[in-house]
Amino acid sequence: MKDKKSSSLALTSALTAISASLCCITPVLALLAGSSGVAATFSWLEPFRPWLIGITVVVLAFAWNQKLRPRTEEEIACNCDEEKPSFWQSKKFLGIVTVFTAIMLAFPYYSDAFYPETKLSESENVNLESTYEINITGMTCTGCEEHVKLEIGKLPGISGLEVSYEKANAVVTFDESKTDIEKVKSAVDKTGYKVESVNKSK
């Protein structure tokens, strides 16, 4: 009984950990599936991330407590745990789930590693270059930044590009003879994140 309870708790903690990082897992899955527009689908979960992390840690700690605590005299007397537990109820399985959970919780910090490097164009005519600051809502991690960079970077004439989820913006420099701000905004919208405002810097 104790083993079944700890394995159920382990699975619950893994699911909660996935939920906590779903806002950053989705952009990577969108990249792999070639479906850019769903990248921002779970960004609404970001405000709940600290709570989900807390629940994950508590549930996992409780699972380990259930697994490691000594059996009571009643459990020994009734031979409740006499048969050897299956793999799914073992410490090894709980250990695997714990490692998986830690990897999922840390996902937002390394999600950008899944994205290719964005190649920018070299400026041919500096006089035709313009720089815009685009305020974007919905970005929650470095993976989101890379997703926006990837889409904007596909446009011709982009010579400078900085995206920050912390500042909720992108600063884009491009040759106006090759692209325009409407195309840049469309590239952002294509990711599922939303353009809130646009300001021309130069």
From TrEMBL:
Role: Involved in mercury resistance. Probably transfers a mercuric ion from the periplasmic Hg(2+)-binding protein MerP to the cytoplasmic mercuric reductase MerA.
One Gene Ontology CC term in the entry: plasma membrane
Name under which the protein is recorded: Mercuric transport protein MerT
Keywords: Cell inner membrane, Cell membrane, Membrane, Mercuric resistance, Mercury, Metal-binding, Transmembrane, Transmembrane helix, Transport
Family: Belongs to the MerT family.
Gene (UniProt): merTP
Transmembrane spans: 47-64, 93-111
Entry-linked InterPro entries: Heavy-metal-associated_CS, HMA_dom, HMA_dom_sf, Transprt_MerT
Keyword Flavoprotein: no
Subcellular location: Cell inner membrane
GO molecular function, one term: mercury ion transmembrane transporter activity
Residue ranges annotated for the HMA domain, each copy included: 130-196
Pfam families assigned: HMA, MerT
Chief localization: membrane
Topology of the protein relative to the lipid bilayer: Multi-pass membrane protein
Alphabetical list of PANTHER family matching this protein: P-TYPE CATION-TRANSPORTING ATPASE
